[in-house]
Structures are given as C-alpha cells and as structure tokens.
Design goal:
The chain is of the alpha+beta class. It is built from 6 helices and 21 strands. About 25% of the residues lie in helices and about 35% in strands.
Amino acid sequence: MAGKKRTNWLGWFILLLLLGGGGWGAAVYFQKPKEPEISYRTGVISRGTVVQSVTANGQLNAVKCVQVGSQISGIIKEIKVDFNSQVKEGDIIAQIDPSTPQLNVTQAEAELANSKAGAELAAVNAKRAEDLRKNELISVSEYEKAMADLHQAEASVKMREASLKRAQVDVERTTIFAPVSGVVIARNVDVGQTVAASFNTPTLFLIANDLRKMQIDLMVSEADVGGVEVDQEVSFLVDAFMGRQFRGRVQQVRFAPTTNQNVVTYDTIIEVANNDLKLRPGMTANATIITAKKDDVLKLPNAALRFRPATSTNSPGAKTTAGAGAPAGKGGGSNTVQVAKADSNAGAGGGDRPDAEERRRRMESMTPEQREAFRQRMREGGGGGMFGGGGGAGRGNRGTDTTTKTVYLLAKDESGKPVPKPVTIKTGISDGSFTEILEGLKENDEIIIGVNTPLTAAGGRPPGPGGSPFGGPFGGGMRPR
C-alpha cells in the first residue's frame, strides 16, 4: 500500500514538472521580441557658408637672407655683432687680422719700385740705341733688342702694379661689412678662430634682410595643387602661438616638382606680414589655402552623399525594396534586413563588385518594380547600389564644377513606415563636412544620413530563425551571458 502511494506521488511530481516547464517555455516563446523596424538618422538642409580649402605644411623663412663670408684666410681679430643684432648696410661686423695682407702690400710696393727702375734704364738704353742707329753706328738687330727690352720693362711695371692692387684689396677684405640692412640670425665664428678660404668661402654670418616680411615654403601635393592660384587667402598656425591664427597670401606656385617617397609636391610661396616680429625663421606652419568660398548657399552633410538604403528580402510572394527606396511590400512572414555598406570613399564603391554571372542571377531574382528602380538609378548616375557598389557620391569637388549625385529623403510608404526616397541633386564645392547644393533640394528638407542598427534588449542580437525557445544548438533563445 505504501509503495502504491509512493508511485502515485512520483507520477504527480513528474507531471507537474513537465507542465511547469512547458508553460515557462511557451511564455518565453510567445514573449520573444518582434523584429525591430529600421530607424534612420537624418539631417536638415540649411543655409550657410561653405569654404573649400587645401591644407599643407611648410617652413617660415625670411624673404631675403644673405650669407656673409670671407674671401681671404686669417684669424678673426674682432667681432662687432652678435645674434639678433640690428645692422645697416656698410656697417663693420667683423675684423680679420690684416698682418699678412699688409706684408704682401709692402712686398708688392717694393717689387713695383724695382720694376719702375728697370723700366727707366730700358728707356735710356732705347734712346741711346735710336741715336746710334740714325748715325748707323749699330746694327738693326741691336736697335730692335733695345726697343724690346723697353717694352718688356714697361709690361713688368704693369704686372707689379696689379700685384700691389691685389694685395691692397686683400687688406680691405680683412674688414667684413654688412652687405644688407637687417638682423643677424646666425653667427658661425668667434674671436681667435682661424678662417680658411682656400677651397670654399666660409659663412661667418647670416643676415635676414627684413623680418617684418616673411614667406612660407609650402609643399602642396599634386592632388591639391590644381585649385591653388596666386592671390588666394591663406590662414596658418604655428606651434609657438596655438591660439592665434595668422594670415597670408599666395604669392607664387612653382612648376618644378619635388618627389619624396613617391609623393609629388609643388613648392608654393606664401607671403606673410610679420609687423610684430612674432614669427621667426624656421617655424613650422600648418597652412590652409582657401580655394573657394560661397556665402548663404544651401548645404547638406557629406554623410548623406555616402548613404545607401537598406535591402529588404521578404518572404515569397511579397514585394521587395532594394536600393532605390521604393515602398516596402506587405507580405507576411519575417523580414531579414541587410544594411548595405556605406561607401567610405564617397562613391568609390562600398563593397566587392560581383562578376557578370552574379549580376545576372541578382537581376533575375528581382521583381519588375525593383528592376525598374535599379535602371532608373543607373540612368541617374547613382550606380548599382545593390550590386556591391555605391556610385554617385563622388570623391568631392576640387574646384567649382557641378556634379550630379543621388541622395535620399525621408518619406513614408502606404503603411506609414519610413522609407528612403531617392533624389538627384547637383552639388558644388565642399569643405569636407558640408557640400553646396545647386539643384534638387530646398531648405529644411529632411535628408537621410545613416541607419541606427537595432539591438534586442535581451542578448544584443535577435534569435536565429526557427530557433527553439529553450535555446541550445537548435536556436538562440537562451545564450550564456
């Protein structure tokens, strides 16, 4: 009797356990979250200023910088200037010991006197030979020899005079003068140092002509140099004054290229006023050249140019929205939403482009409405968004030429759900964040710039299709945290 009661109790316990587990499973299954709808991020078309610019780095230099050297060798006897000294043209800035050049002058003077004495003796002999020849007391050859000696002595005098002048010039060169007015920005010698000018001219000082007028040697890349022209405005920053913006002007764009690690750049000279002498030679300037500027124009965020709509694949028999923003169908069953890749290069192609066979299969799987929408996008220049690409956004304008592109307005379908509506626009200049709109949109239009990817509240991802409410290898209902 006791065994029968124990068996009944165990049976009722197992039955209650099965009913409780089934009820809990049913509750979990029927309370699973529905697939969330697509949520779009939008922006508003507004009016404002669009400034297109080119950025480059360069070094500040004085407009005219003169290297002061020495043409003779010797010991520095005296230095009269130092770093940052203000000098005027003709000022004495250094003195080389003149002892050796002065001795050379004395020697040259003695040699010149000796040559003049020899020339006087030759003149006397030539006069005597001329008189004797008139009386035919000497031969013609003796007369000619006396005249040749006279000419040789006169030439020797001229040579000695040149040597004397050279020695005197060397004495003058022992005094170093400032060739231009300006500021001494470098001094490379000290008193007592020996200057050797035998093979090349040593640089003693570096004088900047006028630091109130400076220039920047910008290295502009070949991709940006097409928009740079003379007289364009330039703003730049230096590390020494990060809170201050300096101004300049494009003075020259040189044609000679410079190649460094396969990068081609062109030297662009920027004219800079430095009236307060805050800027110094050698500073690195981060410059921005304003290539185009337009005020009070319609503009849209550049993210809208990179956006491509989602592709919805419905159950059999339902309409399909693909790429062109057509209204979604009302078919039953669950929808699997695949968000197309945003083109990071703004139109260079957002994914791997399929081959011809893949494109043919995709075209055959489209509905007639989808094929027509795709052909319309191709005619508008928007590119085949669903075929792995996202054309139409472009790389951005370097100049002021117009470009046709496709963007998407936020609209609603028949059921009231938000859907993207394609619009063809013409764009102008861009500043990297906003692009000028010439045609196709109006102020306050709501434009799609992206998609908010939804996540389930429980596990961060929806359960797999056909999954069991109990999880395990047959579904995604229960997952370890």
